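Tokens for chain A. Residues wanted.
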């Protein structure tokens, strides 16, 4: 049998698959070397599990009232009870589901709106870009919390309105990132080649530009989760978020502040839950940013 002569040709699909696998391996290797990032990931995963399985973990019904008013932490109630005799541990556990859901929903809204506006300004340019810049400048002229307060006050206090208010208050970061990244990507050779063969704008954006801006979007999304949860808790503290008796951390802190001297555990535990969630999300986001940064790879 005659031996095959000439170089071995490897299909481009297999080469791309190997590259993707190698990139993921490098990112995970750099991420797991960061102890802070691993701690943040563990915190976030634990909070997600607590929120998902809160029905099984909570020892009591978070809305069930009893005669044990303002009882300090004990074996039967590790986090104590509130002014209506409700178990604080159960309410904090159920609050994880609500706070994480509101934070993820708000970031999803901010991501969707920011990507749409940023792509429109960065890709089409000229008049579209001027309009996008004007919209971003208008929204950025207001502090995020103040803008979220105004939107929540206009729409009314409820969880969906809190998601929308926080999302509209945070979309400018995504819009600015996407706009600047699209400006760079649209001048590259593969985009110009696509235009030269008659590819449509939607095809170029969806197949060539958006996949290349995914890594920075992942980092910004991760870092924004903590900010969104903090803003949602702030709205709940101000009475513009979830209304009683819904076990939401910000609202629980608001109720407990009136009894801070005689029952400080009403503020300690929901406040610690907010702090732990934001800390874990930020630590994980910082580690992911460093792992995806090519300048920091070895």
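Reply:
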């Amino acid at each position: 049998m005659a031996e095959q002569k000439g170089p071995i040709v490897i299909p481009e699909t297999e080469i791309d698959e190997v590259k993707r696998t190698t990139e993921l391996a490098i990112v995970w290797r750099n991420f797991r070397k960061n102890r802070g990032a691993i701690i943040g990931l563990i915190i976030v995963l634990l909070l997600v599990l607590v929120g998902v399985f809160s029905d099984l973990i909570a020892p009591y019904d978070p809305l069930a009232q009893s005669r044990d008013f303002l009882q300090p932490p004990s074996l039967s109630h590790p986090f104590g009870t509130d002014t209506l005799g409700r178990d604080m541990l159960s309410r904090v556990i159920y609050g994880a589901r609500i706070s994480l859901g509101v934070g993820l929903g708000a970031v999803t809204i901010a991501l969707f709106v920011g990507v749409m506006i940023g792509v429109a300004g960065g890709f089409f340019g000229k008049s579209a870009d001027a309009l996008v810049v004007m919209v971003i400048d208008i929204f950025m002229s207001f502090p995020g919390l103040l803008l979220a307060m105004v939107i929540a006050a206009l729409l009314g206090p409820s969880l969906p309105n809190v998601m929308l208010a926080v999302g509209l208050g945070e979309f400018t970061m995504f819009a600015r990132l996407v706009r600047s990244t699209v400006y760079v990507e649209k001048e590259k050779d593969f985009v110009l080649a696509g235009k030269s063969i008659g590819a449509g704008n939607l095809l170029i954006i969806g197949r060539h530009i958006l996949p290349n801006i995914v890594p920075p979007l992942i980092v910004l999304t991760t870092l924004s989760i903590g900010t969104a949860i903090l803003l949602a808790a702030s709205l709940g503290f101000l009475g513009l978020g979830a209304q009683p008796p819904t076990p939401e951390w910000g609202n629980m802190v608001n109720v407990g502040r009136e009894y801070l001297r005689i029952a400080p555990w009403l503020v300690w535990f929901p406040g610690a839950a907010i702090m732990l969630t934001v800390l874990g999300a930020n630590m994980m986001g910082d580690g992911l940013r460093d792992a995806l940064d090519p300048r920091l790879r070895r």
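The chain is about 70% helix and 0% strand. The chain has a mean pLDDT of 84.
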